[in-house]
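Researcher: I'm preparing a figure for a lab meeting and need a structural model of a single chain. I don't have an experimental structure, so a prediction will have to do for now. The sequence is pasted below. Please return the structure as tokens so I can convert it later.
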Amino acid sequence: MSLPRFLLDILEKQYGNEKLLEIIEGYNDKRYVTFRANTLKTDFIEVEKKLDELQIEYEKVAWSKEAFIVKNIKENDLRKLDIYKDGEIYLQSLSSMLPPIILKPKEEADILDMTAAPGGKTTQMAALSKNKSHITACEMNKIRLEKLKYNIEKQGATCVFIMQKDSRQIDDFFSFDQILLDAPCSGSGTLENDSKNEQFTPKLLEKSIKSQEALLKKAIKVLKPGGELVYSTCSIISRENEEILKKVLNKTNTKIVPIEIEGIEQIPRLPTSIEGTICVKPNKRYEGFFVAKIIKDNG
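Model: Understood. Here is the structure written out token by token.
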């Protein structure tokens, strides 16, 4: 496998050799196809029935009734099914389903999705709030914005307002009850054994860190007092996760809230240096992922 030497050095220094070997094993595992039932168009019971009729093997996870792991069908074949074409299911990694579930989007809440495309988490938040929240979905890239529009329409997420905007440039007079910041990152948690990983470079890492810091600062500015923010990345490198949080949050009236969801004990995890945060360890079912929940004080 062509894992960059500099990445292995970072991970060994951060986690130690034993954990590094576990991470490499996770990179080498071929991940199962996963998706969630779109409750704006169906429910998990109906999806289970249709999978049973098609003789598709699946397993569930403890932390979401809507999440499915399928084992005897490839992604391309899944895309040919009516349940996919009709928007009843959305192909999404298990790890990326976690941030919206942890945020718990509220009905009637003003919610900001800072980096929304292609729309998996945006439409998931719409479903979790039964289309009764007010979601502003930001995306600055025009091509990615079109993909976002397509998925929002296909999934029936009618509570979403799309804005072509770099979230770092949002006017400070905006204010939101809840914010999802799934920050652009190096992707160190998503590497696979059948990829050359040529795009994973020190330059990408440094660019990601700079962007993450600016986005997090903006998120805190436009978050209402008492509001909730979920910060996530598909990286397992602490410089993109805990170190960003420590650098930014220390200068603000915010605090980390321990993540508590039912079934959390089943998620494979790596150690973190901030209590209450989650770093998902890559394996057959999960991509490497980091999630933190933050609350802004009322003061």
